[in-house]
Amino acid sequence: MSFNMTNKKPIPLHRKLFYKMFDSAFSREISFIFILSVILLIICVNIDAFEKLVDFVEYYEYYELDEIVMLVLISSISFMVIIIRNVKHLNVEIKLRIKSENKLNKLAFFDPLTGLPNRALFKNKLEQFVSRDKESMQLGAVLYIDLDDFKNINDSMGHAWGDELLKKFSERLQIQLRTYDTLFRISGDEFTVIIGSPINIHGISTLAEKLIESLKAPFILDREEVYTSMSVGVAVFPTDAQTAKGLLKCADTAMYSAKHEGKGHYRYYSIDLDKQAKLKLKISNKLRRAIELEEFTLNYQPIIDIETQEVKGAEALLRWNNKELGCVGPDIFIPIAEEIGLINEIGNWVLRQACWQNKQWHLAGYSYLMMSVNMSSKQLVNDDFINVVNNALVKSQLEGSYLELELTETALLGNLEIAIEQIYRLKKMGVCIALDDFGTGYSSMSYLVKLKIDRLKIDKSFIDNIPHSEDDRITTHAIISLANNLNLQVTAEGIETEEQYKYVKSTSCNAAQGYYFSHPLTADNFKFLLDKSPTFS
Fold it and tell me: Mind telling me which residue stretches traverse the membrane in this protein (predicted)?
């Protein structure tokens, strides 16, 4: 594709062409003066002008015209020398200005690290691409590329490695592109590709697959192998949008969808994706005032002691009811809260409320109740996390031994060293630690020992098919045996049928929870359940 470099209107005469013509004009003038001088010399010789000039000077010797003539000749020669010298200096100045302008142009429109066209030039070229193809309506596309987990690589290996990775990454992508396509770097780890005609949908998919496949081989950075992947969003012109801004927005939306699907994928834009993006934006905006507007509530699901078949505790479950959106599930708004940086504020609110509520139940005569609260990985690695937990306990006057914090395997293993330190400090406060959704992650015995946890919670996915699935029965039995060998308590989650409960009772599992016993309850209904002193048999 051929594009202008800037958004300015094209000028009739290009600067470089003008300077070239200027040099030619000067040369022609010098040649003209030389030829004219030769012609005048020939005429003077033919009419014997020199002799006549001598006679003229001798005749008017009184006026000393010879000196005047000599002065005029010397002045003419000096004037010619000055003109030639000034023109040479002007020529040098022009060349320096051309060089300076080219340098400024490169700084303005090209990325200094990778040498690729930058965001400013991308916008310009995309505008030209759209306006050029609007008349013909030929198929084209924009790819929006994001390098997966680049921040982790940058933070763990240093910015020098990160810069080198970006350079090698851009070089590898350029090899895969056709001559019709242009690669741009528009921000830190984000790139775009304008795919020009001729192309079809199959060709666009093939190119996206080639780009993703090209990252299967490792990058060599300082003799170390580094593996990475990328997420790609595809917006097709003119199907998805017919403006530059619209195409970029569609490609960006598709890229985030690809990233949420598990990274290392590409995704085409669709109207459904646009609806999802708009809903996500609305949820993000509403979340920011949810605490202030008191839209959050906690429900409590009973945890049953299998041996006594009585309620031994509760798991606090966050609920959000917005006036406009209605009831929004935690599986929807929790990931968004993590993404926009609200999870610490929301998690801290949950912790304070849960500790306060458990203390109220203790004061009502149920002083044995344990409160389980889910913690996110972002809360765990927060420097102020220990203070937050301590403040919640102090303000509610709840003893640490009646608080159990649930953390997932992925949250712990993503920051293992920090997790070990934080858990050690929590244990000193008397707080219990449970490993939630056990069996769905790495399930390594070594980190179970290092982390000094108190309880394993068997993930619901293993319970769902019991007793019909032999594999799930074997897996569940193995998890319970492992916990017993490590002197850990075990809770089975997601008990929904009598058969599942009977199976769990037949093992050495300590506790269970699920719809078979009770759905999550409001604080008042949970208190009513306690007052009835139920026995689940």
Answer: 30-48, 68-87
